[in-house]
């Protein structure tokens, strides 16, 4: 799938570079007037700059950008749309409300529901991961707040991570703290970024890394003052986009294919595994206790 996408998008830079006089004129016009296309729904705001080919995707699911079934569905549809758009070469993923990038999977989707619902939910989580990790676009996470578990996974799926330099913001795969287990593809995604040793320790402890620690361990690539997260993402994106798309895409696919294939070839088994795990009484109890702790902390 990724290889086919790479072939399709091979044309994108050529189209931009060798475009007709009309096209070049349009480009100049774009540079001057910065034509922006918006395709938003009530959970995701997208602004695609036609001059640069960069889309900024802002997650907007208050209060904490939790990844509900509805949100994940909208997310995957939006991503698919951008992936198919030949004018879009880069994606900056961020939160519409600073302080929280994403609180991860919506715990309520994993509590007290039917097995059928859990199956549908997990398929949507898989879909989000396959689309984002397998994207042909340059993907940059502009992490403007805390990012536990599924939120961290989203950031790890991107090619580059820029985080707000605020020790109050933390990122990590904290699943064990909830009494649950990060599945193999969450583990692989993290391991591909920070290596096996850091992943092994962080996953067992369910460690959340405050921003400076996240930088130290390579979980993020750069820390910048909060107000510079978006502009830094834009300038890093401009650098990445100087590389010809087809060469970068084939390289990305070569690096990630083994990891994505593991899930693609085991999707149904992975769903079955999730459903049988999450329906256990002991796991349901752990999640309820965790939610209760969150509420009490607030009080
Ligand atoms: C054998 C192997 C088999 C493996 C099979 C698979 C196993 C299952 C794998 C599942 C993988 C799970 C991945 C996940 O992503 S789980 C989610 C983990 N997320 C968290 O732990 C985050 C929890 N939240 C927080 O830490 C804080 O809320 C946060 C720092 C994000 C924000 O803090 P803040 O103080 O600003 O806000 P509040 O805590 O007051 O929260 C506001 C309301 O939002 C609710 N909330 C928060 N997080 C979630 C969430 N993830 N899902 C649903 N709801 C959430 C919170 O309860 C507050 O609600 P109320 O206002 O109603 O009290």
From TrEMBL:
Species per Swiss-Prot/TrEMBL record: Xenopus tropicalis
Keyword rRNA processing: no
Leading EC class: isomerase
Similarity annotation: Belongs to the enoyl-CoA hydratase/isomerase family.
One GO CC term, this protein: mitochondrial matrix
Keywords of the record: Acetylation, Fatty acid metabolism, Isomerase, Lipid metabolism, Mitochondrion, Transit peptide
Alphabetical list of SUPFAM superfamilies matching this protein: ClpP/crotonase
Name of the featured protein: Enoyl-CoA delta isomerase 1, mitochondrial
